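Hi F.,

I've been meaning to write this up properly since the lab meeting, where we talked about keeping a consistent format for the predictions we share between groups. The idea is simple: the sequence comes first, exactly as it goes in, then the structure tokens exactly as they come out, then a line or two of notes. No screenshots and no reformatting. I'm using this chain as the first example so we have something concrete to point to.
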Amino acid sequence: MPNRLSDATSPYLLQHADNPVEWWPWGEEAFAEARRRDVPVLVSVGYAACHWCHVMAHESFEDPATAERMNALFVNVKVDREERPDVDAVYMEATQAMTGQGGWPMTVFATPDGAPFYCGTYFPRDHFQRLLEGVATAWRDRRDELLQQGERVVNALSGPRTLAAAPPPGRQTLDLAVRALASDYDHTNGGFGAAPKFPPSMLLSFLTAQHERTLSSQTTGEPTPAGLMAGGTAVAMARGGIYDQLGGGFARYSVDREWVVPHFEKMLYDNALLLRAYTRMSRRPPGSGPAENGEHALLRRVAEETADWMLRDLRTPQGGFASSLDADSEGEEGTYYVWTPAQLREVLDPEDAEFAARVFGVTEEGTFERGASVLRLPRPPADAWRHERVRAALLRARQERVAPDRDDKVVAAWNGLAVAALAEAGVLLERPDLVDAARTAADLVLDVHVRDGRLMRTSRDGRVGTSAGVLEDYADMAEGLLTLHGVTGQARYVHEAGRLLDTILEHFGDGEGGFFDTADDAERLFSRPQDPTDNVTPSGRSAAASALLTYAALTGSRRHRDAAEAALSPVSLLAEKAARFAGWGLATGEALLSGPRAVAVVGDPGDPQVDVLVNTALRWAPLGTVLSRGDGREDGGVPLLRERAAIDGRATAYVCEGFTCRLPVTSPEELRQQLSG
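Output, unedited:
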């Protein structure tokens, strides 16, 4: 019997549609089949860009002998973790509880009711074949033990998870978080902790906000601890192999602490968050931001190149953004990106090849595998013009190689992150095409993903998937829409964000000020996931707090502000002991500490001075300041714009806090002065 994945919208599932394994997609039908056959369920969870997922697929799932065992002994279920983060979350928690570690591919053996009784990650083929036989034998001979094990796991993971009550983070808590981060900071290489090192994108935004707040109260002009950590990390990553020195964009993580060799998959969520962080860090003139004077241009260049890479390599024909690029091409990890000296000489003349090897750190020994090197930029090139010319030549040559596969499903949450990042970058980098791209992506999600008033998580080729949106989808899309309103002046984005946030309040609340990651009417799993920590993306709870706070500043809604403050409670608990896992919450705490301020810019939509004031507001307001734009005549149903008129028909800005505004100003100099006061 062929497997049942050929109609999936997930590229990861489609990668397995021709396997000899009789895969089922996640669903009640698979578990009903397990009950009918009286066999366990094997749940295999991964994602399209996952290197070790491909390794296990080639070794085991494409192997007829292994597939024969799987088909005879189990009902086999394949899950795309990006499409079903709720399924991934509950089984990952079980895997970590049983083994002390986790990762992908995740391999779970469960009862026909879904209770996990044995978990692991990648297994080599011989080991996996023995495991299949062992689990099947245990199911036949010691089933009661397995059922009891599954019941214990379910009971342990489905109990109440009440967090201690705490106020939202204030000045002392935010300062404490900086001290906690300093104790984990790598002063030599930037970043936090040891290998593997993940880009701390959300911490960069928090540290930048903290740096600017602290710097404004200093009289010495000395670098702040937050600024040193943010600037040191951002520069080290920008010069390392984790950043694609030819094409732009960041890889998922570095396998070493020096940022030399990445795990080569490139994810939309990483790059959206890093684009926003690098744009923010470089938005002010040298000496005002966290980077030292000589590195300011580097951060701005990285921001612009990352945005260009997103538009070039991730944008779909429908105008959304694909999820990722694979780590592998031609069956090997990193082949698309690495170079040997001989390969440089094939593309460049001898002098340029020698220059490229020196500038990009390409050696005969290599920094990767088989004598190949990952391109880095350890120091600024002495000849910048030559560097750009050589770089362009190498990029053209690389584009002739077999490119990594692209997972082109559109995930609502990650597109929301991209919308926010591109909208801000479009203004601050003076790139209207980026704002246009943000608008198109937002409209795609609103047009395709919203069904019967609810948000669906994924689409592909303009066809919506079947997975319900989770908390991060609603929250990150709301964040993106509110940011987009601020730079475009389109009031509909505020109203659409309000509908998403109202759904959060009505269907995701836990009754104690927090939120579950799934809605109250979503599919019931053995545990209802609820994770308050920020990992590689903002937690749904932190993202919701940020969007709720922004919406409250635009509308004056006390309900939404109270919900935002309550949702930030765990940040105060994490600040001292686990600040690395609270970056988005801490950044939102900085916004709360500043009010947040709100800036309403009004004037004729065709008046370029309106754009100048919007740019000034984004550049000089504290991070987290809420921006709204209007024509000065109609408020579009956005309360912050109500009775905000253009003075004498000129572009005008109002700086407000809690709907109490200072005197309106009409010049960027006056606006900057108010924002600095």
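Notes:
The first strand starts at residue 23 and ends at 25.
The radius of gyration is 25 Å.

If this format works for you, I'll send the rest the same way.

G.
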